Amino acid sequence: MGIVIGPNQYGKAEVRIVSVNRDNARHTIKDLNVSSSLRGDLDAAHLTGDNGNVLPTDTQKNTVYAFAKEAPIGEIEDFALRLGRHFVGTADGITGARILIDEYSWERILVGGASHDHSFARAGDEKRTTAVTIDGGRAHIVSGLKDLVVLKSTGSEFWGYPKDKYTTLAETNDRILATAVTARWRYLHTDVDWGKSFESIRSTMLEAFATTHSLALQQSLYEMGKSVLEKHPEVGEVRLSLPNKHHFLVDLEYCGLENDNEVFFAADRPYGLIEGVVTRDDVEEAPQAWYSLPQF
Question: Which residues hold urate (predicted)?
């Protein structure tokens, strides 16, 4: 029986970069967290410590900053494609690259009712994401969002589930449904208006969440993914991870008050975690390595 090195990669994780466009008095900013991972002929590095094909992770970091200066960052998908193709095309022994980017959103501060030219406020915890994989001459793009917190105060039920001696949860036909959406969608090609596609997919998922009378968070997940595929032919599949942010009705009978679905305790843990893939039945299944989400 022999021992061999299995699949491997290496890179620089979480390079924080803020780029300010000062072409005119009205500045714009791009706030990113960039991670790079390189793959290829790296057996010697693991087996004998030969670093002949190991492009230093510090060089990868420096490349991120230099590329942001040499040309506008633009859409995060385009920036990731530039980085990944550069590493595969110029680093000896490197045949694949994976670039992960989170983008943090900023909104202009209003002053006297008008948006300020160079002052901004962070727009919550939501992040736009992309995972670009360069495999030889092929490029695969999986974009998405995470930490998009949504809530509907009615239009959600939960009943008809199995019960045993450990069940204490009461059935309900009217509950708060809340979650923090993490979504990834796989593009079928690279001829995409990334910004327009992202905004439309985000709006589509929000509309589906709001308008689906939900009998289970699983049902909402499917409707959100299905609506994206129905409206976006450039997308092959959608992966969703939805933690159920539970809201429990507070019992106020002890003080003589009736609580008619008005006062709730918001629990942060433990929570139900609902995950799934909504896909077209006529597209090739994507390798797990294309995704930045763990397998589920």
Answer: 57-58, 158, 175, 218, 244
Task: Look at strands 177-187 and 114-135 and give their pairing.
Answer: unpaired
Q: Does 218 belong to an annotated binding site?
A: yes
Catalytic one of 140, 146, 152, 246: 246
SS3 at position 195:
helix
DSSP-derived 3-state class of residue 271? coil
- Write the DSSP symbol of residue 156: B
Quote the CA–CA distance of 130 and 53 in Å, as a whole number.
27
b/e string for 269-289 if b means 16 or more Cβ within 10 A?
Answer: eeeeebebbbbeeeeeebeeb
Query: d(Cα 125, Cα 106) in Å, to the nearest integer?
Result: 10
Q: Is 90 within any annotated ligand binding site?
A: no
Q: What is the pLDDT of residues 249-278, one digit of tens each?
A: 999 999 999 999 999 999 999 999 999 999
Q: Is 57 annotated as a binding residue?
A: yes
Summarize pLDDT for 41-79 with one digit per residue, the tens.
Answer: 999 999 999 999 999 999 999 999 999 999 999 999 999
Per annotation, catalytic residue among 57, 95, 190, 279: 57
pLDDT at 294 over 50: no
pLDDT over 60 (residue 296) = no
Q: Is 279 a catalytic residue?
A: no
179 is catalytic: no
* Residue 226 is among the residues annotated as catalytic for this protein: no
pTM comes to 0.93
Domains annotated for the chain, with CATH where assigned, are 1-136 (3.10.270.10), 145-295 (3.10.270.10)
CA–CA distance from 79 to each of 22, 82, 87, 141, 295 (Å)?
Answer: 19, 5, 13, 12, 26
- Binding residue per annotation — 158? yes
Distance separating alpha carbons of residues 282 and 47, to the nearest angstrom: 42
Q: Please check the confidence at residue 292 and state whether its pLDDT lies above 50.
A: no
* Residue where the block lists tokens 């595969």: 88
Residue 104 carries which side chain, given as an amino acid letter? Y
